[in-house]
Amino acid sequence: MSQVDLWQIERSYFEKGVQIICGVDEAGRGPLAGPVCAAAVILPEGLEIPGLNDSKKLTDKRRRELAPIIQQQALAYGIAFASHEEIDAINILQATFLAMERAMGQLKIHPELALIDGNRQKDFGINVETVVKGDSRSANIAAASVLAKVTRDDYMEAMALEYPGYGFEIHKGYGTKAHYDALRQLGPSPIHRMTFLKKFYGQA
User: What is the rounded CA–CA span in Å between residue 50 and residue 127?
Assistant: First the structure.
């Protein structure tokens, strides 16, 4: 998808007089271990970053090339986590909102509108528009998806050194066969989401 298409949603708001728009996305809602990470990004209007797209459609190498470009060119950005403990305490949806709120709280510029990937929203104290498949439809959300994914992947690679044997560096905490095999062998690590493993250990 070209960069021109990625600005279509933002352009419709710019035409209505909205000037400062941030995109918000998360990485890591589904994994069995580790935090959920959210990013909020405000790009200059119409900025073209060649190759920018939904982080899931990009290779790890491409995401890592794009992340510093996004950070350099953005008017403002924020990246934040909600921990595995918070996920277990308040559930993954509320923890995702918490990470998003923290990421938006880091923005040096106050946005007039937040475009949030997905179809669930809460009151963040600013105008919010949810965008289904927003990470492939909005430049700001696509940029946020890249920063969130790269940051969380880096965290899980660091955790792989701290808790070897689970393969965090490969699957980043997602429920692969190898990950479940490691859980059977080693039991849960200190960063596993125990609410995500209730059924697994109930049946084990």
Answer: 29
What are 89-112's pLDDT values in tens digits?
A: 999 999 999 999 999 999 999 999
Burial of 56 (0-12, 13-18, 19+ CB in 10 A): exposed
Please choose, from the candidates 53, 38, 2, the residue with its C-alpha nearest in 3D space to the C-alpha of residue 152.
38
Distinct helix (H) and strand (E) counts, the chain: 9, 5
**Which pTM value belongs to this model?**
0.95
Question: Which contacts qualify for 90-98: CB closer than 8 Å, 24 or more apart?
Answer: 91/195, 92/29, 92/36, 92/193, 93/120, 95/36, 96/26, 96/29, 96/36, 96/38, 97/122, 97/124
Mean residue pLDDT of the chain comes to: 94
Among residues 163, 123, 156, the alpha carbon closest in space to that of 34 is found at: 156
Question: What b-and-e string marks burial along 66-103, b requiring 16 or more CB atoms within 10 Å of the CB?
Answer: bbebbeeebbbbbbbbbbbebbbeeebeebbbbbbbbb
Angle CA 99–104–109, to nearest 5: 165
Cα dihedral across residues 84, 86, 91, 95: positive or negative:
negative
How far, in Å, CA of 61 to CA of 31, rounded? 21
